[in-house]
Design goal:
Blueprint lengths: L1 E2 L7 E3 L2 E4 L8 E4 L5 H6 L4 H23 L12 H12 L32 H5 L5 E5 L4 E6 L16 E12 L2 E3 L4 E3 L11 E4 L3 E2 L7 E6 L9 E14 L5 E15 L1
Length: 267
């Protein structure tokens, strides 16, 4: 992979394409080539490749549901989460031995702990480097609820906030993640019909606190308002630290694209 330095352009130029990606300020160069889109779509030589591509599309469907369930913590991601989530979901998909290649299901509910600790940041340990004491959590799957214990935070001891940030808040989000399966009639991967906009993630957070002052331990409780009609789902609890600026009217404006988040627990 090559990078541009001193010359700036985006798009195609001859047999080279230049593009950027989230989490990097570099312009990436890639040589054009390979089979045409029509060949990959129709040629019998690419039949197996099409099946793998179809399964990758299934991971994208499942990944979209996961990203939605990060709720407000998704704004703390400093990279594209699609490819990173696909790496995990492909491992789940390969566990399906009942369906043929190209139609294997993504049943995260069979191994939800795979995503525990998943970082929304390019630096995998960014959240743990910010809050260096353990945040404990317990999930009640039957009650669709969680209880989170945030330890006492002492700047310079177990708490290292981002530079030049005056206020912070610890935020937890509870969401319901459905499995994804191939629909033979529609010829594509889908999530269950019950999974619609009524299953929005729920959030709880500490008050906005000054970053340079010790903060007492806090307990957060959160509950999902409705139960899915099926058992094939996972309960996902993510935690994030967001930063903000104190305004003159007494409110705090959250700072964009600054913070850290991870999946705290799954159930």
């Amino acid at each position: 992979m090559a990078y541009l330095n001193g010359i700036t352009f985006i798009g195609g130029l001859g047999n080279v394409t230049a593009y950027t990606q989230k989490g990097s300020d570099k312009i990436i160069l890639r040589r054009k080539g390979g089979p045409s889109r029509a060949m990959v779509k129709n040629d019998v030589k690419f039949a197996v490749q099409r099946r793998y591509g179809q399964e990758l599309g299934g991971c994208s469907v499942a990944g979209k549901a996961i990203r939605m369930m990060f709720g407000p913590n998704r704004a703390l991601a400093d990279q594209s989460l699609c490819a990173k989530l696909n790496q995990y979901l492909l491992q789940v998909q390969r566990r399906d031995t009942a369906n043929e290649l190209g139609q294997r299901a993504i049943r995260l509910s069979h191994m939800p702990q795979l995503l525990a600790g998943f970082s929304l940041n390019g630096k995998a340990s960014l959240f743990d480097l910010t809050i260096r004491s353990t945040i404990t959590a317990s999930i009640d799957r039957d009650g669709l609820s969680a209880r989170i214990a945030v330890p006492e935070l002492l700047p310079g001891v177990n708490f290292y906030p981002a530079d030049n940030q005056s206020m912070y808040s610890v935020t937890v989000v509870l969401g319901i993640v459905p499995d994804a399966e191939f629909d033979a009639e529609l010829k594509k991967y889908v999530t269950p019909l019950w999974f619609d906009t009524t299953y929005a993630p729920v959030m709880a957070s500490t008050a906005w606190l000054p970053a340079g002052v010790p903060a007492d331990a806090a307990t957060l409780e959160i509950r999902f308002p409705q139960r899915p009609p099926e058992l094939e789902f996972s309960v996902m609890l993510s935690v994030g630290i967001r930063y903000g600026m104190f305004l003159g009217d007494g409110t705090v404006l959250q700072t964009r694209r600054v913070g850290a988040a991870k999946v705290l627990a799954m159930g």
